[in-house]
Amino acid sequence: MVIQWYPGHMAKAKREVAEQLKKVDVVFELVDARIPYSSRNPMIDEVIQQKPRVVILNKKDMANLKELEKWESYFKCKGYYPVAIDAKHGKGLKLVEQAAIKATQEKFEREKKKGLKPRAIRAMIVGIPNVGKSTLINKLAHKSIAKTGNTPGVTKQQQWIKIGNSLQLLDTPGILWPKFEDQLVGKKLSITGAIKDSIVHLDEVAIYGLEFLKEHDYEGLKNHYKVDVAIEAENIEWFDAIGRRRGLLRSGNEVDYEAVIDLIIHEVRNAKIGTYTFDVIKEMDV
Ligand code: G4P
Predict the structure, then answer these.
(1) 133 CB near ligand 1 (under 6 Å)
(2) What's the CA gap between 206 and 258, in Å, rounded?
(3) For 201-283, CATH number?
(4) What topology does CATH give the domain 3-179?
(5) Per-domain residue ranges for the chain?
(6) pTM for this structure?
(7) Of all atoms in ligand 1, which is nearest to the CA of residue 127?
């Protein structure tokens, strides 16, 4: 489902998440490990404020692990507890519980000193659509919990799910809006599948993907498509070579550019060419 975020929706989502935050000790901010900056909600710090935070870099299986380590250091420097996981294949789930314990240690020590009884850590997940919130909840819960749909905010009927020995998780995540001011961020959100195809220009997204690969994995790109195109060649030459190699032709032996665009986006998005992190920390102003 494609949702358009209007100011009213955003205010409502923010309000609802703020309401749920009162019930938890720690927030799991879920981002896509391929775009750890671009897949964050633009007002996330204002929403979460000082609440202890575990930043979960999900879809690790499709990301560049070296870049991911740099992002983990970045989030650590900000005072958060980052963990990189692959929710789909259930990898790194234990790290989430361990990080939650560390993030709330001080609070629980204070409670203990006050004579309060030990209790489970309460957590909730927040993030933009498609970063894997439902997948993670289902994996942590060891069962399938109905997807809430990408409606703004959080739905009403909530339950706590027991995870491991020390954690309780709200079964419905807080859904916040993505960044949409910046064109480059939009292309990154699109190439990773975080925003739906209909709201962006697909040719620009495919060109973004192609240019990223030329710069960061020229050999991998050439090998994948079995084409030999110079790095400095125009994008159209790449499209032509890829289209011909893959037999994406129209009548008259013309390259079907729409089909080439779809192919490139699909294959980059699903990590068919390689595993990349498009937010490259040294190229960014963060
Ligand atoms: P959301 O609740 O945040 O909106 O996201 P959701 O869990 O629906 O996940 C969005 C897509 O991301 C799903 O793919 C899901 O399988 C995939 N995904 C989630 N976590 C991971 C991960 O760690 N690695 C990989 N590779 N993919 C992940 P889909 O194509 O929409 O659905 P499906 O065909 O996989 O069921």
Answers:
(1) yes
(2) 10
(3) 1.10.1580.10
(4) Rossmann fold (3.40.50)
(5) 3-179, 201-283
(6) 0.94
(7) 3
Please tell me if the domain spanning 3-179 has the same topology as the one spanning 201-283. no
The residue whose CA has the least distance to atom 29 of ligand 1 is 130
Angle formed at CA 224 by CA 220 and CA 229, multiple of 5 degrees: 75
**Which tokens go with 156?**
């009403």
- Ligand 1 centre to CA of 74 (Å) is 25
53 lines ligand 1 (CB under 6 A): no
Burial 267-278 (b: 16+ CB within 10 A, else e): bbbeeebbbbbb
Q: Which residue in 167, 165, 191, 189 sits closest to 179, CA to CA?
A: 189
Cα(209) to centroid of ligand 1, in Å?
20
| Each residue's pLDDT expressed in tens, for the chain with a length of 286 residues | 456 789 999 999 999 999 999 999 999 999 999 999 999 999 999 999 999 999 999 999 999 999 999 999 999 999 999 999 999 999 999 999 999 999 999 999 999 999 999 999 999 999 999 999 999 999 999 877 766 555 566 555 789 999 988 999 999 999 999 998 899 999 999 999 999 767 789 999 999 999 999 999 999 999 999 999 999 999 999 999 999 999 999 999 999 999 999 999 999 999 999 999 999 999 998 8
132 lines ligand 1 (CB under 6 A): yes
Instruction: Report the separation in Å between the CA atom of 255 and the middle of ligand 1, taken as the mean of its atom positions.
Output: 32
To test the ligand 1 pocket, which listed residue (41, 88, 128) has its Cβ within 8 A of the most ligand atoms? Answer: 88
| Rounded CA separation 89/18 (Å) | 31
Is the C-beta atom of 135 inside 6 A of ligand 1?
Answer: yes
